[in-house]
Amino acid sequence: MTPDQTPLPSETRPPTLELSERQRSVLRAVVEDYLLTATPVGSRTLVMRHRLDVSPATVRSAMAELEALGLLSHPHTSAGRVPSDLGYRIYVEALMREAQLDRADQLMIRHQFRQVQLTSNEWLRLAASILAGSTRSAAVVTPARSRRARFGHVQLVALADGSRLAVLVLSDGNVLQRRLDRATVDRLNPDAPISQADLDGAAAVLNAELTGLTAPQARRRGARLELLPAHVAEVAASMLEEADQVAVEEVFTDGIANVLEQPEFAQGSKLRGVLEVLQRSDFLAQLMPVLARRSGVHVIIGHENSNDAMHEVSLVFAPYGAPDRALGLLGVLGPTRMPYPRAIPTVRYLSTLMNELMTSQYGEHHD
Amino acid sequence: MTPDQTPLPSETRPPTLELSERQRSVLRAVVEDYLLTATPVGSRTLVMRHRLDVSPATVRSAMAELEALGLLSHPHTSAGRVPSDLGYRIYVEALMREAQLDRADQLMIRHQFRQVQLTSNEWLRLAASILAGSTRSAAVVTPARSRRARFGHVQLVALADGSRLAVLVLSDGNVLQRRLDRATVDRLNPDAPISQADLDGAAAVLNAELTGLTAPQARRRGARLELLPAHVAEVAASMLEEADQVAVEEVFTDGIANVLEQPEFAQGSKLRGVLEVLQRSDFLAQLMPVLARRSGVHVIIGHENSNDAMHEVSLVFAPYGAPDRALGLLGVLGPTRMPYPRAIPTVRYLSTLMNELMTSQYGEHHD
DNA sequence: GTTAGCACTCTCGACCCGAGAGTGCCAAGT
DNA sequence: ACTTGGCACTCTCGGGTCGAGAGTGCTAAC
User: Considering chain A, what is the average pLDDT of its residues?
Assistant: First the structure.
């Protein structure tokens, strides 16, 4: 029942489970209290609020031990204790209870997805919105893309205004479209065929050439594309380029306002760096291979994050999509004082749900 | 040379131009000083910094007059003056200089658009990024959509996994795609034709039925769609539905972090309401008709905004796109202490640039 | 109409101080 | 050996005071 998280590259295993039963329950109580109140928690209030059947003095000594182990910290003498990043990790891995989302919540979420006939992008939007609302944190969802997608089907359409539309279906289920404006069409091929029939012929050539190839393979075969009519070759090259930038180019976020409300980020400038990193798409792109290595929920707490700007936030993320096909990311971002017991099951459930939706949408895969 | 802004529904014209030359120059100096420093500005520093050839005492009396007119306000006795919303408006309409973007900036922006072969959505992303960077405010860009778009061309594609892809080109240049998963295909039509030729035939029927119609017209003709094969009718209905929700469903924002840095929003919770309103798409949808009524830059300052949550922010927005075709919104959002002299020319330039791009992309229109 | 002078007001930061919370340690109890 | 009550100690936080500084409004003189 212990959930499936890992610290990132996780250099060395922390001195985890050498904790006594008392230490464990005190740590759990401190974390859970702090998650709710956001104020350092003292021995007295801890005993009262969590019905520990010991005296504050006993709790104090346990706290001192936990602090020596690096799981708790003191803002200053004579304030209560606050969990350290390591403390949160122990909590998440060993102390947190109930790692399953309520049946009721599951149904509610499912219902929202069922309610409307949604297109793929709006699934992502909805997923972000649900994540944000349910965890009161910022949610991030990236579309599912495959690094090794193969060309499926190309379709060329002649439009009334003289421009051309190219639609490319990839094997990972994504659809790319590119429009060639009339100026380009004219430049490339002043007397190009503009009948739909001609374009169908060109598309047939492209399909024969490209279907089943990955973008790099197709590029290697680029020389032979030169034989194609100029305006078709242009489309093909442009498509290749686009299919190749698998970088996460589009990110759906929601609930940034939630994080603004957290006392940790009350003076908004602290969030600035985080937002900027999040915007820079390479951050998520960089996260992708790490998360993709193993399915399930990954938790990255504070300094475990390799990026300096993220030292004060936690991420709860999961990949979704079939591991050998298109992969996307989905998760939440918040202060290290993140409601893990809520966030982790929610992210897990949503990732499995998205898996379901994607396979039902695109059918089983065969290759 | 006076720029082309309007207060929103603008109930009554403010007691605008009854200002003496002295009052005008003092108001201008106060606004420009405050835009830079964000601190209430006093008579002494004003005279020094802006080389007014009068004594502080003279400035003080002018300030008192301006305050009586409601253009300046006092945070408290014995602090400097701060422009009121009305003061900003007078400034924007009558006092602001140089309403043209530098040639250098124009070229730089153009260059960024030229540099990469971008698809339509990435234009929007780039536009938002440029706006945000150039004005140090939050930028908002919505895609161009037409309320009265007509159906252009429908294409149906049979995919390898048994699902169908429908691509619909609208007269406003937008391309919608919808995928029918295999389960739906099977349910609707267990022994549906799956050859591409069959789908081409069905597409031809759809094209004949729908081309040139608006979504409402097409819906009225819905009865006749029943004659179509079930799986095609399903696509058509689903497309109709999608084409009809012209609501601004997708909004590109950038630079929210910029606003977080402004002292006005230092304690982030003030931004919360603003972000929420911005997320709720109906806000922009509601703005659209107002802005669309006249092209050019519209400035909405603080309380001029009908929405309560926006009482402390200013918007500098412009529509883009041909007025009788697809229309989108583009602009920036920041504190009422917005750098208008920078923001207005930038928004104006970007809106004309997007106009250019769209017409060159989609060609001239004929109907 | 403009300016210098002047009394007045208000904020802001520094400082102090006491209350309160919480700790660490020690000695006594079980 | 662990637990507990007691106690001295430390540190923050809020309130209050105070002086400096900035800025105003008014008035009288230019």
Answer: 81
Q: Which residue from B281, B360, B333, B357 is spatially nearest to B124, judged by alpha carbons?
A: B357
Across all residues in chain B, what is the average pLDDT?
A: 81
- Residues in A closer than 8 angstroms to B162, CB to CB, are 363
Structure tokens belonging to residue B85 = 């919303």
B280 CB-near residues (< 8 Å, 6+ apart): none
Compute the C-alpha angle B315/B316/B317, nearest 5°: 105
Closest CA to B122 of B250, B289, B249, B284: B250
> Which of A117, A256, A277 to mutate to probe the B interface, most B CBs <10 Å?
A256
Element (DSSP H or E) covering residue B249: none
Q: B-chain residues within 8 Å CB-CB of A243?
A: none
User: Which among A157, A152, A144, A146 has a CA at the least distance from the CA of A218?
Assistant: A152
- Tens of pLDDT, residue by residue over B213-234, are 877 787 777 666 666 666 666 6
A60 CA → C24 C1’, Å: 9
Question: Which residues 6+ apart lie within 8 Å of B178 measured at CB?
Answer: A119, B165, B166, B168, B235, B238, B239, B242
Residues shown for chain A? 367
User: Percent of chain B, pLDDT > 90?
Assistant: 37
* DSSP 8-state class, residue A303: G
Q: Residue B262: closest CA among chain A residues belongs to which residue?
A: A269
Task: Determine the 3-state secondary structure of A318 from DSSP.
Answer: strand
Alpha-carbon span B214 to A228, nearest angstrom: 37
Can you give the pTM of this predicted structure?
A: 0.85
